Amino acid sequence: MLMDGNKFTLNKDAITYLEENIKNYYFKKRYQRYNPSPEALGAFKDISEKTNVLVLATRNCPICIATIPVLIRLHLDVQNPNLNIRVIEDGSPHMPTFLADKKTPFIIFYDSAFNELFRLEQKEIKDNFESALIEELKKLVSA
Questions:
Q1: Which of 25, 107, 125, 126 is the most exposed place for a label (fewest CB within 10 A)?
Q2: Tens digits of pLDDT across the chain (143 residues)
Q3: DSSP class per residue in 69-135
Q4: pTM of the predicted model, to two decimals?
């Protein structure tokens, strides 16, 4: 899926998205109560190449509220400078056409040149997001 670096930067960074959504009780509780596993923290620390992450979200989506705080918390706890997370909300004027038919949440990991590394779709995310994320990141690091 093609992504343009300029369009990518037009989207909200993780901190901006967190600040906007922390007012949502369930989002805030998920962020505060999430206790990252050592394996998840390690997977985020092990990202040694510049990696761009695009997250398609909808504010009132229960699966988004359950998963996006996890992703942001991991990102902020580890503070890996190689990781750049941007959130695009469904209906945004900056939304690329390839995302138009995707169900939220939809997460794509790109390398520094915006070549797709892997994606996590709603059906993979809703059962156990942390495990699905760790599994894909381990593949990425060992490749």
A1: 25
A2: 678 888 899 999 999 999 999 999 999 999 999 999 999 999 999 999 999 999 999 988 999 999 999 999 999 999 999 999 999 998 888 888 888 889 999 999 999 999 999 999 998 888 889 999 999 998 887 76
A3: HHHHHHHHHH--TTEEEEEEETT-TT--GGGTTPPSSEEEEE-TT--EEEEE-HHHHTT-HHHHHHH
A4: 0.93
